[in-house]
Every structure is written in C-alpha cells, then in structure tokens.
Write a structure and sequence with these properties.
It is a single chain. By secondary structure, the chain is an alpha/beta fold. The chain has a domain of 182 residues: 3-Layer(aba) Sandwich (Aminopeptidase). It is 30% helix and 17% strand. A hairpin with a 2-residue loop joins β2 and β3. The longest helix is centred in the N-terminal third of the chain and has 18 residues.
Length: 266
Amino acid sequence: MHITRPVLALLLVTTGGLLAAQSPAPPQPAETPSVPASTSTLPPAAPAAVSASGLAGWIVVLDPGHGGDDRGVQAGELVEAQLTLDIAKRTAAALSAHGARVVLTRESDITMDADARAVRANQTHGHAYLSLHFNRSPRTAATGAEIYTHQPASMDDAEPPDAQARTLALVRWDRVQDRHAPAAEHLADLLATALGHRVPVSATPHRRLPLRPLAGVDAPSVLLELAYLSHPGQAALAATPEFQTAVSEAIVEALSAARRPPDAAR
C-alpha cells in the first residue's frame, strides 16, 4: 500500500483529502487472536456461524486497492492491484449470498484516487467500508494479515463527543470518519478474530494510523493488509483460491457479527 498526495479538504460527499502521517502509531495491546504456526499454510477450516440471510438489508462497500497505473506491491508475477480485485469479487459473491448488497469502488483495472473511492462509497450510504490491500516490508520476517482503523493525525482539534452526535450541514473531510470510530474499532476486532481462525495474522493484527483512504468515508471503515507479498511463503499462499476463500469467509463472519438490526436508524 502506498499513500501519497496530501490535499486540503472540505465537504462531506464531494472532493477533499487528508495529510496522512507516515509513521505508525504504537502497537495496540491485547485482543490478539492465536497466530497459525506456519505463515505459509492455512489453519484447519473454521465453519462460519452465519445465517443465509445474516446480512439482509446491509450495504457493504469493498474497495480493491490500487489499480490502473498504480500496480501496488509486486512479487514476481503477483500484482497487488489484481489480487485485491480478485478477492473483492470473490468476497462480493459471498456477501451477496448472505443477503448483503455489495458495491465495489472499482470493478476493473482502472486508476482511482482516494477521493474518488470515498465519493463512491459515500454515494452508496453503505453500512461498512473495507479497503483491501497486500503489504510488503524490507524485513523478511514480517508476515500476517493486519487490520487498520483511522486515527486522526492530531487528536487535539478533534470534535468533542457531543459535537459528533449533532447533525451538521458541513463536516471537515478529514473528520468524517471520526463519528464512526467506535463501530470501526469493533469491526476491526471482529475481523482480527475471524481472520485469525483462517489465515496467518500479525502478532498485533489491529493497528491505528492516520489513513487518508479512510478519512473521508462516511461509514465504519477498515483497511485490510491481507498478507506480506515480500514474504515468499505468504506470496505463494495469497495467490491460492483457498486463501482467497478463507478471507471472504472471514469477512462475511465479521460483518454478520457487526451488523445492526435491519430496522436500526443509520
């Protein structure tokens, strides 16, 4: 994943941007699922406790990272932009089978910036937004899926809770995600658990960063780094249908656990 082009921002569902910090926040403690012994194989399949209509009434936005001129991480013949699109389509089918309406920010190999993805998501009024990516690191030992939630670059000027609860005509673009922080954190924890039962995960799977791709999305949002393509074993694993199916099943399970009652007000 590569985040660039800081921009100033404005309106809730039009154009804008966020200056994303480049250094990671300190690793978060606890709530870490067990990590499979091998980073190159899948653990035994865990059945998903999800009803056939468990996501009926929900709109889920899947964002296949990169695309077009932006190829993302490459490892041999593997290209992040294509892998994320493949997994997004597989996951969309699984979510649809459980009653969800699924919207993809892109359905082909096209170039899209972070603003266009956020606008696409906000136009759908989705209940959850998942941005799909693959990771890389100069450290060959780095492995495992990681789930990121948005943390503003500076918490000093964040709106107080009572202000977030009010209905405002205008919201700063880089504060749109703030109101969804509790739901996004909950979804990230559910994803860490569901993924941890199916694929290799990092020792600290839930992390927080100022993330421009999430900042302007008006729905609980997470960014998934599904594996390290810089690790040969994980790269080989990521290309398999078994891995991609395991990821889609984990996403279905986590969203089913996170969803609100169909009649709950958004």
